[in-house]
Amino acid sequence: MNEQDFKDLLGREEINNSGIADKMFPDNKYARTTLSAKLAGRKSGNGLARLTEDDLKKGWKVLKDLADDIYSRAPEKKKSEE
């Protein structure tokens, strides 16, 4: 990994909950508040906000995409390091 790759990865918006929320709920103006409420199980309407199966699938995709990007930039191992 070179310096620019490292900076690029740290600059990715998905590194925090706000960025993850924006990727999970791209059409929701209040995506960050929505995810925060669901993670905390806050009162919402007549019940509690909760993560649905669809939310978990979306969240997993965001995290997997981030992990794949990080992994693709990892330094290559030399045969002596394996």
The secondary-structure element order is HHHEEH
**Percent of sequence in beta strands:** under 5%
Helicity range: 55-70%
Give the structural class.
mainly alpha
Shape: elongated
User: How many distinct beta strands?
Assistant: 2
Q: Report on the biggest sheet.
A: 2 strands, antiparallel
CA gyration radius, whole angstroms:
17 Å
Widest sheet: strand ordering: 1-2
Count of structural domains: 1
Low-confidence stretches: none
On the 0 to 100 scale, the average pLDDT is: 85
* Spatial separation of the terminal alpha carbons: 17 Å
- Helix tally equals 4
Characterize the structure shown.
The protein is mainly alpha-helical and 82 residues long. The protein has one domain (3-74). Helix content is 56%, strand content 5%. A two-stranded antiparallel sheet has the order 1-2. Helix 2 crosses helix 3 (31-40). The longest helix is centred in the C-terminal third of the chain and has 20 residues, at 53-72. It starts with a helix and ends in a 10-residue tail after the last helix.
